[in-house]
Amino acid sequence: MKQEPLIYPVRLNRYLAHKGFATRRGADELIEKKLVTINGAIAKLGDKIAEKDVVVVAESVLASIAKQYRYIAYHKPCGVSTDVQPGSQSISSELPALRGLFPLGRLDKASHGLIILTNDGRLTERLLHPSHQHEKEYLVRVDKPVTDSFIRHLERGILIEGYKTKPAKARRSGETIFYLTIVEGKKHQ
User: Fold this and answer.
1) 100 near 121, Cβ under 8 Å?
2) Which one of 55, 84, 102, 182 has the lowest number of neighbouring Cβ atoms within 10 Å?
3) Sheet with 102-103, edge to edge strand ranges
4) Which residue spans within 100-176 are E strands per DSSP?
């Protein structure tokens, strides 16, 4: 489910919940414990913030969140990077409470879709290591008609920067739409 954008001014507890720090009730608890500041001043229950206000949550709260294994399903919008790139909007800049989490796999900046974020390296290894052969399915829209020969070409594996990918499963879903199921995640596959 895509998260609706905030309309400012917005209540601080809603802002903190929207950014993933806590539920609204949990955000109220953080505010009551004086663990949140707005523009350097300690926040109060019921405070509203403007878009340019600087909201800071105490480092102790962030450290506490980071110590627990966390698993979050996130719908990555187009234009947001799965990794941090200078001058680019990334998942962690969109939702600062997710600091310390990393995506299971990646989606190109121009792509959108569900991605799992976690700080559990054990799960990451089990799901992403090629030896486990986990399938990943993508719904792809292209700017040209999808032909039978294109689908067969994908299924045999394609050459990317001198590397031939493993065979894939592909099936047409429309004139310019197809499903692609792969077990590896080579760049731009």
Assistant:
1) no
2) 84
3) 71-76, 113-118, 102-103
4) 102-103, 113-118, 136-141, 159-160, 163-164, 169-172
Measured between alpha carbons, how far is 154 from 84 in angstroms, rounded to an integer?
Answer: 30
Q: Which among 47, 83, 108, 120 is annotated as catalytic? A: 108
Helical ranges in the chain per DSSP H:
12-18, 24-32, 59-67, 91-94, 121-128, 148-156
Q: How does pLDDT run across 113-163, given as a tens digit for each residue?
A: 888 888 887 777 777 777 778 888 889 999 999 999 999 999 998 888 888
Residue the block writes with tokens 């878009």: 51
Q: Considering the entire predicted model, what is its pTM?
A: 0.56
Strand pairing report for 159-160 and 71-76:
unpaired
Six token digits for residue 74: 């996130």
Report how far residue 57's alpha carbon sits from residue 34's, in angstroms, rounded to the nearest whole number.
9
